[in-house]
Amino acid sequence: MRGVRDLVAQVAPSEASVLVVGETGTGKELVARSIHDLSERSEGPFVPVNCGAIPAELLESELFGHEKGAFTGAIATRQGRFEMAAGGTLFLDEIGDMPLDMQVKLLRVLQERTFERVGSTTMLKADVRIIAATHQNLEALVEEQKFRMDLFYRLDVFPIRTPPLRDRVADIAPLIAHQLAQLPEADGLSLTDAALQRLEQYPWPGNVRELMNLVERLTILHAGQSVDVQQLPEKYRFGSGAGVSEQTGGAGGLPDEGVDLKDHIARMEMQLIQEALDRENGVVAKAAALLGLQRTTLVEKMKKLGIQRD
Questions:
Q1: What does pTM read for this prediction?
Q2: Longest C-alpha distance within the chain, in Å?
Q3: Average pLDDT in the 129-141 region?
Q4: Beta carbons within 10 angstroms of residue 207's beta carbon
Q5: What distances in angstroms separate CA 101 from CA 12, 58, 107, 132, 178, one per listed residue?
């Protein structure tokens, strides 16, 4: 992370495009905001847009704006994110999810530094700095012809990789301390050394975001207490993923006292659904794809198990 901070400090004063690459929950937007805050555009707006969360048919209007009557439902003229970010920074999160036809239009804006609102012929100046981010391997998408090579090289002027939490477990304790300091209701809450060691063994598929969610959950369940391993939610108690074998008495065996199979399966199903949601930043459709389910099926399971999106 010191290396990441050094790169941020080096690139911030320039106008170069930056591509932040890392798994979901590793703090890519925080890196982008840090670049903006240290840049000469810091007095201007920082405007984020998640390219994967906006339907493809609405993305052009979202980025470039539209004129009244440009399409059904366009009842008024609307500014797009490029106009909102004028004089500042436009953060294009999950750029790897941008449709190919929109990639062409974005490339033209980056080359010509001008754009038009949907339904207009008036050219507007794109006075923005572009920072993009993705959890995907864009070079692999280029090979598969799912991402334009020319756009990739336009964005990849200065790449920064945010490391996953499992590669920097020494950060877990200070990150928890930092989060507890931000939560007034966490006064008096602490974690034992054994609990911290167990958390360091967990693979953290949701990375720092998942850790922050856990800390907030603990402040609700155990306010003012010292949290030991037994007080951690079940999936964290088994650290490196040995939960199934530990719960069932070894390598696939049953414990002597037996097991409630229905309850056990429900707990495992809940854990996998929660991990999929954490990994996909709460986007149900993507979590469903990760689990091989239809979106409606996953929604029903979430309702049945009482799972809420963070």
A1: 0.72
A2: 76
A3: 95
A4: 25
A5: 30, 12, 10, 17, 42
